[in-house]
Design goal:
With 170 residues, this protein is an alpha/beta fold. The chain is 46% helix and 20% strand. Helix 1 runs parallel beside helix 6. The radius of gyration is 15 Å and the shape is globular. The termini are far apart.
C-alpha cells in the first residue's frame, strides 16, 4: 500500500515525539528521497527540538565530500548498498553532532535500475552515536512517487523502531 500524506505525517509525529521524549537530536542523510523525510519531520512546529537538519546527498560527489563515504567504496559497491548507507549514518552524525541518524539510498526510477539493483531497490540505515547501526534492504513496487513515499515511511518507522529497541536496552 502506498502511504498517503496523513500516514507519513503520523509516522513523522511518532518519531518526533520519541526523539523529544528521549532528548535526542536527529539528522537525515537522504539520496533518493531528496529531503522528504526531513520535510515530514518539520511539518510540525517545534521540530527544531529534535531535528538537527537534513543532508541531501544525491550525488556520489556529495556523499564523499559531506558524509565522508570513501570514493573507493562508492566505486566498488555503488551508492545503493549496505556499506554506503552505514557510512552515510556515521558521516551525518559526525558532520552535525546529532545523536541519531537515518540514511536512505535507492533507485526510485523510472530509469537507473539494473538487473542487480532494479527500480524500487532501497537501502536504509539507522543509528545512534553510542548504539550502533542497523540496516535494511527493501524492494518497493510502483512508480517513482510510490517508491519514494514507501521509502519515507520506512525511514521514519525504521528509525523509530531502532530507537525504541535501543532505549529498552538501557
Amino acid at each position: 500500500m502506498i502511504p498517503d500524506d496523513d500516514t507519513l505525517l503520523a509516522a513523522g509525529n511518532r518519531l518526533g515525539d520519541l526523539l523529544a521524549d528521549h532528548g535526542l537530536l536527529a539528522v537525515t542523510a537522504e539520496s533518493c528521497t531528496g529531503g522528504w523525510v526531513a520535510k515530514v519531520l518539520t511539518d510540525r512546529a517545534g521540530s527544531s527540538a529534535y531535528l538537527a537538519g537534513a543532508l541531501v546527498t544525491y550525488s556520489n560527489y556529495l556523499k564523499n565530500l559531506v558524509l565522508q563515504v570513501p570514493a573507493e567504496l562508492l566505486e566498488s559497491e555503488g551508492a545503493v548498498s549496505e556499506p554506503v548507507v552505514r557510512q552515510m549514518v556515521r558521516g551525518a552524525m559526525t558532520a552535525t553532532g546529532a545523536d541519531a541518524a537515518v540514511a536512505i539510498s535507492g533507485v526510485a526510477g523510472p530509469g537507473g535500475g539494473s538487473a542487480e539493483k532494479p527500480v524500487g531497490t532501497v537501502w536504509f540505515a539507522w543509528g545512534t552515536s553510542g548504539g550502533g547501526t542497523e540496516t535494511r534492504l527493501c524492494h518497493f513496487d510502483g512508480g517513482r512517487d510510490a517508491v519514494r513515499r514507501q521509502s519515507v515511511l520506512m525511514a521514519l518507522e525504521g528509525l523509530a523502531g531502532f530507537l525504541e529497541q535501543s532505549t529498552k536496552k538501557k
